[in-house]
Amino acid sequence: MMISKQWIQRGVLCGLLLGGVVGCSMVSNPSVSQVAPTDHAGLVAWYDNEAAQLRQKAKDMEIMQQRYIKEPHLSHMEGRNAPKFNMVQHCNNLIGTYTKAAEEADDLSRGHRSMLK
Predict the structure, then answer these.
(1) Which residue among 31, 74, 93, 95 has the highest number of C-beta atoms inside a 10 angstrom radius?
(2) Is residue 94 within 8 Å of residue 61, measured between CB atoms?
(3) CB contact at 8 A, 96 and 24
(4) Mean pLDDT in runs of 10 for the chain (117 residues)?
(5) Is 33 strand, coil or helix?
């Protein structure tokens, strides 16, 4: 019984980590075929959209962090091969990363918006 519980916990942990990797890999620059270099209006829209998506990811991560705070047993794994990291801190790191990326997207959007005039 204890071994199957460990496998389930490890599977959930791997799923969370893979979800984070996939989420981070989806943040990319617009392809050249989507937006011409002189299409500042298109770049403004793209960066505004990216900033909104990144802020939503930060909010989702805050919700996850609060759940780990309220239910610490979700992030606690026992055993010799258990991971040695804090899920609350991990969520906090991702919140900071998403927030910083959203701010950078806002800066880029402002830059291209100023080129429209």
Answers:
(1) 95
(2) yes
(3) no
(4) 66 67 59 65 90 96 91 67 72 94 94 84
(5) coil
Using DSSP's 3-state secondary structure scheme, residue 86 falls into coil
Report which secondary-structure segment, H or E, holds 49.
helix 40-70
Radius of gyration of the chain (CA): 19
Quick one: the chain helix, strand, coil %, rounded to 5?
75, 0, 25
Tokens representing 15?
Answer: 């799923």
| Burial state string for 90-111 with b = 16 or more CB within 10 A and e = fewer than 16 | bbeebbebbbebbeebbebbee
- Which whole-number Å values give the CA distances from 23 to 19, 20, 28, 84, in the listed order? 6, 5, 11, 23
pTM, 2 dp: 0.64
